[in-house]
Amino acid sequence: MVKNNARNPGESGQMLILFVLGLGVLLGMVAMSVDVGLILHERRSQQNAADAAALAAVADLPESPSLAIAAAKKWAQNNGYGPSGGATVTVNTPYQGNPGAVEVIIEEDQPFIFGLVVGLDSVGVHARAVAEVEPPRDFAIFANAGGCEADALNIQGSTSTIDGEIHTNSELKINSDLYVDGAVTHVCDAAVSGANTFTGGIYQEDEINWPAIANYTYSDFPCTFTETGSKMKIGAGGSQYLLNPGSKTLKPGVYCAEGDLDVVASTLSGNVTFVAKGTISFSCSSCDFDAYWNDVLALSESSDKGAISFSVSTFNFQGLILAPNGGISANGSGFFSDAGGFLANTVSISASDINITAMEIGKEGPPRLVE
Question: Which of these ranges, 113-122, 204-213, 280-289, 351-360, has the smallest mean pLDDT?
Fold first, then answer.
């Protein structure tokens, strides 16, 4: 039997048609892939530029929104996105009411290459970034003890005003007629009673690190007067530290005690800093002190609950009271400061007529992208 291997001419024509159609589909898919790839590349490029512009802008916030806007647009232009290239750059600050935040939006048309075949000219591509800088914190009272220590921050008393923030990394207890022009924050449980007003609210917050500006040790201080014995006594019985016999004003400088330090006086004032490896106690009818060194009025390295203690009638002060390892215990009345703060492992206040305005002790956090 002889086989006939000759093909039907119609079959060859059908194969050619199928090949042409398949090739068209394949080329269309390749064209689409190229255009989509270019669009995605442009989107990534825009996002990188928006991120960089937002981070550059936030460096000028919250002090100068106008400089922040100019910096964002300049940075976007340097990355190829500006009016000359057909891009629209929108900068919004304050963002959602936050003066330390900025929103940058970059919009530009991406032309099609192969899409022109099917009548597609271009597609809008946009990227958006939001950056913020955490503003400085103004802590008037800060308790650093962790582990949900009971009553790590305990405020009792009446008719007191705090202009600044209050924070504890443990439990909070307030039973007072307290007006706080700022937030009251706590990591663990809070028990609050009394006719209190907190303009910034009261709420739980994550643990906050000890402020870097208050991170001192005894050895950091340049001592003007030093007592190497078990106790330095200033005031009554300690006239060797006075400006002159009978004076009510201390010589300016840093008073350093390698043991305890006691300030006992009916009336005493001075431009001074008190530093002790042991405890520091103030017993005053009327004392008025301004910090001599780096805005620190007193620092104790003691781990005692009463590392720094007060029993006073009137105590005017400027500067930070620091007990990073122990506690501050304040009793009496009439604590006044228009630039000061209590920062310690624990803080216990049982006093009336307190009026303290916080010193800016926090530090701005680094700029960060949040959206």
Answer: 113-122
What ranges do the domains of the chain cover?
14-132, 139-363
Rounded CA separation 180/198 (Å): 5
Distances (CA, A) of 48 to 55, 65, 290: 11, 22, 50
Instruction: Report DSSP letters for 134-155, one per residue.
Output: PPPP-EEEEE---TT-TTSEEE
Of 141, 134, 132, 108, nearest to 39 by C-alpha is 108
Three-state secondary structure call for residue 48: helix
What is the distance between the alpha carbons of residues 238 and 248, in angstroms, rounded to a whole number? 12
Question: Which residue type is seen at 304?
Answer: D
User: Within a 10 A sphere around the Cβ of 197, how many other Cβ atoms?
Assistant: 10
Mean pLDDT of 51-79: 90
Q: Has this prediction a pTM greater than 0.90? A: no
Return the SS3 of 331: strand
Strand 368-369, strand 122-132: pairing: antiparallel
Confidence of residue 323 (pLDDT cuts 50, 70, 90): very high
Nearest CA-CA partner of 143 in 170, 113, 103? 170
Kindly report the length of the chain.
371
Distance, CA of 220 to CA of 218 (rounded, Å): 5
Query: Distance between CA 299 and CA 321 in Å, rounded?
Result: 6
User: What type of residue sits at position 365?
Assistant: G
Residue 371 CA to residue 362 CA, distance in Å, equals 24
Mean pLDDT of the chain: 84
d(CA 165, CA 117): 64
Q: Is the pLDDT of residue 193 over 80?
A: yes
Indicate the pairing of strand 260-276 with strand 315-358. Answer: unpaired
Is residue 327 classed as helix, strand or coil in its secondary structure? strand
